[in-house]
Amino acid sequence: MHRRAFLAVGGRTAVATLAAATGGPNLLFAGDRTPSSDALEQRIADVIAAFDAQGNHRTGTPVDNASAEWLARQVQQLGAEPELEPFALNRVDPQSCYLRIADRRIDGVPLFDATFTDGEGVRGGLGPLGSDAEIGLAETVPVTLMDPLKGQAALAEARRSRHKAVVLLTRGSRPGLFLLNAGSFSKPIGPPTVQVSSIESEWLKEQAQQRAEATLVAHVSRTATQAFNVAVKIAGSNPALAPLVLMAPRSGWWQCASEQGSRLACWLEAIRVLATGRPARDSFFVALSGHELGFLGIDAYLKRRGDLVKRAHMWIFFGSDIGAPGQPNLIHASDDELEQWAVLAMEKEGLTVNAKERHGSAARGEARAVQQGGGRFVTLVCGSDLYHNVTDRWPEALDVAALARYASAFANGALEVAKQQS
User: 40, 47, 162, 289: which one has the fewest Cβ atoms less than 10 Å from its Cβ?
Assistant: First the structure.
């Protein structure tokens, strides 16, 4: 495995205030305070504040790679030994991306798994998706906790269309730009597509009805580079036991403080607890880059590890936006036993489960590779109003008190599993 020198992080991030608990339906005892819970909240606040301050965590960028080294340093400080495992990618670097109609220019972000234009772009009439216009206008619908793929129908239709290019209005729970992940990054499909804010919806629909002349530019360059997974092993006393695996994506659009920062806080807390907990079974941890680009990181991680998917006793997948203010949670387990384990672990921290996914439903994110490989898994995820939006920032997007309870629940629950002798 590839090892690199880690960048030292000077000093601890000072955080003057912590987000207040919402007292929502998933917190039974939000008022309970102990010195240990205060210390955990401070650790979480420090981690997410530092992660947010790093910048845009897009896969394989200088920010993403420096963040991997920062995370490795956090692991070292917890008494574990991290490894940075590289994987190659052909990074997309947007150069010019916009829609121009008459004298008005609307800047956007290219769809990273579609095709692209040159610097001159595509010219022609703008019309509704499916019309005979050269440039089609499509619109997503907001992603929800219970239906994370809800916004994919318009995208699928756009990919199949005969338009020379597509403008994609992205919708969330509020007006703004809510980017789509690039699930087909390794095999781009469909016409050049520019994602723009839903703020432009009314005006663009009027222009589409009038078949306004437009120019769409989705011009990018490509850079051959590397991204890194951060991998950790905490050895157990009995290596014959099936191992435990805990994984958390760490790359994404913009700062993604709640989407990815919350996962990393839980992941680091589990490392802290297991590193000093004298587990019986081996415990593997991985923080994955490539999340927004077709889950490139999990593919690279599994290629190095042969039969780990089926060999593992269980996989714990930290889903997005854990502890987002006032948001419900959902758990998805591959079987009854793991579902009951998650429920009990949460109950011990005063947390209730708001929703449960059917065991056989398609798993979220990187957990799908485990599901498809026949492995056992459990996922925790929370809802969000800021999913893939630039306003997913520290501290407003986080409820530190709630996140601390989730982190403690799954860290202590994982330790119980790791100590089992069978």
Answer: 162
Are 346 and 398 contained in the same domain? yes
Shared domain check, 363 and 317: yes
Q: Which residue segment(s) compose the domain that 212 sits in?
A: 90-223
| CA 252/CA 148 separation, integer angstroms | 16
Q: Are 339 and 363 in contact (CB under 8 A)?
A: no
- Number of independent structural domains in the chain: 2
pTM of the model: 0.92
Domain co-membership, 96 together with 161: yes
User: Residues near 167 by Cβ (< 8 Å), separated by ≥ 6?
Assistant: 99, 108, 126, 135, 136, 137, 138, 193, 194, 196, 204, 216
Which of 196, 223, 250 is where one domain is finished?
A: 223
Question: pLDDT tens digits for the chain (422 residues)?
Answer: 333 333 222 323 322 222 233 333 344 444 456 778 899 999 999 999 999 999 999 999 999 999 999 999 999 999 999 999 999 999 999 999 999 999 999 999 999 999 999 999 999 999 999 999 999 999 999 988 888 877 678 899 999 999 999 999 999 999 999 999 999 999 999 999 999 999 999 999 999 999 999 999 999 999 999 999 999 999 999 999 999 999 999 999 999 999 999 999 999 999 999 999 999 999 999 999 999 999 999 999 999 998 999 999 999 999 999 999 999 999 999 999 999 999 999 999 999 999 999 999 999 999 999 999 999 999 999 999 999 999 999 999 999 999 999 999 999 999 999 999 98
Residue 302 lies in a domain: yes
CB of 400 closer than 8 Å to CB of 265: no
Q: Please say whether the beta carbons of 29 and 94 come within 8 A.
A: no
One domain for residues 217 and 229: no
Which domain CATH number covers 172? Answer: 3.50.30.30
Radius of gyration from C-alpha coordinates of the chain: 22
List CB contacts of 10: < 8 A, sequence separation 6 or more: none
Residue 169 located in a structural domain: yes
| Beta carbons of 260 and 319 less than 8 angstroms apart | no
Q: How far apart are CA 380 and CA 316, in angstroms?
A: 8
